[in-house]
Amino acid sequence: MSASPFASFGTINAMPRAAETHPLTWRLRDDGAVVGLDEYRNKDGYEGARKALDMKADDIAGLVKEAGLKGRGGAGFPAGVKWSLTARGEEMPRGYVVCNADEMEPNTYKDRMLMEQLPHLLIEGMIISALANNSFRGYIFLRGEYVDAARSLEEALVEAREAGILGTHVLGSDFDFDIFLHTGAGRYICGEETALINSLEGRRANPRSKPPFPGQSGAWGKPTVVNNVETLCNAPSILANGKNWYLGLALEGSDDGGTKLFGFTGQVNNPGLWELPLGTTAREIFEDYAQGMKSGYQLKAWQPGGAGTGFLLPEHLSAQMCSNGIGEVGTRMGTGLSLAIDHTVSMVSLLRNMEEFFARESCGWCTPCRDGLPWTVRILRSLERGEGEQGDIEILEELTGKLGPGKTFCAHAPGAIEPLGSAIQYFRDEFEQGINHPKREAHGEPIPVGSV
After folding, report:
1. Is the dihedral of CA 400, 403, 407, 412 positive or negative?
2. Which label site among 109, 145, 180, 365 has the fewest CB atoms less than 10 Å from its CB?
3. Which keywords appear in this protein's UniProt record, sorted alphabetically (predicted)?
4. pLDDT, tens digit, for every residue of 50-106?
């Protein structure tokens, strides 16, 4: 198998790694090549799945819950809780495990590395999830542009079937389960689990009304659990080593268990991807691993985890990278892959670029998202050209409320609008510079405030 492009990306493969401290990355090869089945087995592969085969479904879900594993795709919902809510009982049909491998969040690339280099880790995690959720089939919903990941996964699936790890009698047991790869057509909205399920079924990728939740009625009307790649890849080590070990990996102050793939990009000296304990401070990641800003650049702001998280200032680098730590400074950890914004970047231009993406990716199902996001784009374009009007900033602020949590059908618009609100909060003067004051005063027109 060919080497992955991540062999030279940052320092992920140059870090000291051990099974006791790096459950996600200790098996990685130094040359970045794919870890095949034989090598994976020699490195304790599928031991977690073997232990799960001897456990009851409720006990597997309970163990993952007690270990404190939260979703690693951005929402941070406890994985064990999600598994425990899946419909159970002899009268219930066997359902599906769906892996969300779409990874369309801008500035996010961690799942790609796992799928390209450690495909069997994901397969093992899906087997464990299937045992916990009484699933007979799994689907990996993969971002279509991830060609190398698709190749690695397809080869690993063939290896697993030929070895009796997938198909009938998984690992010599009475449990039957198989996994199929499905490549998506490139829609950000498929990060929402019900939109993903609709797309998987061949429907338009619109979010579904809930309830019923996927755990009761998901893909093709059967109980379905949807988890992100990194989330599922944590399950094997929890089953193999236990909850106390996993909880002990996180640092004091974190309410999450385990480790996390963190990253930093932008004008930093060492952009990369690193597996670190949850609760590690953003400053340590930025200074010790990303090695600070390049010569001639100053850190102006940063985003902790993708384009859908709020902007923070340099003084916020002291925050711990965990859900409660980032929550204390006013935003979400998201995917945990941070972006450093340097002093040469216009916040108005950056926001215009982001909101254009979010507006284009809206499914158009609900009015606030369908009409509100393009409205923000029009205003930001005017401000960027220096043709903004009095009241534009107030309209943007009002939109951040009208498109916020609980105001729209799904979480797309709240995520899209969060960076806008924080940018206005911290860099209002840059928005004010885009207002053409003389033009408005010359015509003597009133300030338009209005309502959305």
Report:
1. negative
2. 180
3. 4Fe-4S, Flavoprotein, FMN, Iron, Iron-sulfur, Metal-binding, NAD, Oxidoreductase, Quinone, Translocase
4. 999 999 999 999 999 999 999 888 787 889 899 998 988 777 889 999 999 999 888
Report in angstroms the alpha-carbon separations of 386 from 113, 142, 299, 370, 440: 41, 41, 25, 26, 12
- Token pair recorded at residue 195: 């939109």
Which domain does 331 fall in, by range? 250-342
Return the SS3 of 238: helix
CA distance 180 to 419: 36
Partners of 135 in the beta sheet?
A: 95
Segment 216-245, tens digit of pLDDT: 999 999 999 999 999 999 999 999 999 999
User: Nearest Cα to 184, choosing from 99, 125, 122?
Assistant: 99
Q: Is the pTM above the cut of 0.70?
A: yes
Domain total for the chain?
3
Phi, psi of 337 (to 5 degrees): -105, 110
Same domain, 96 and 24: yes
Tell whether 315 and 438 lie within a shared domain. no
Looking at residue 23, its amino acid is P
Give the Cβ contact number of residue 314 at 10 Å: 15
CA distance 113 to 416: 25
DSSP state of 76: -
Q: What is the dihedral of CA 110, 291, 423, 377, to 10 degrees?
A: -50
- Structure letter (DSSP) for residue 213: P
- Token pair for residue 183? 């490549």
Cα–Cα distance for residue pair 86/392, rounded to 1 Å: 46
- Domain check: are 297 and 425 in the same one? no
Residue 249 near residue 121 (C-beta atoms within 8 A): no
Q: How far apart are CA 345 and CA 350, in angstroms?
A: 7
Question: What DSSP designation does 190 have?
Answer: G
> Where are the extended beta strands (E) located within 103-230?
135-142, 178-183, 224-228
Identity of the residue numbered 104: M
Task: Measure the CA–CA gap between 91 and 112, rounded to whole angstroms.
Answer: 38
Residues forming a β-bridge with 272:
264
pLDDT tens per residue, range 280-311: 999 999 999 999 999 999 999 999 999 999 99
Domain identity same for 88 and 187: yes
Question: What 3 state SS string does 87-102 have?
Answer: CCCCCCCCEEEEEEEC
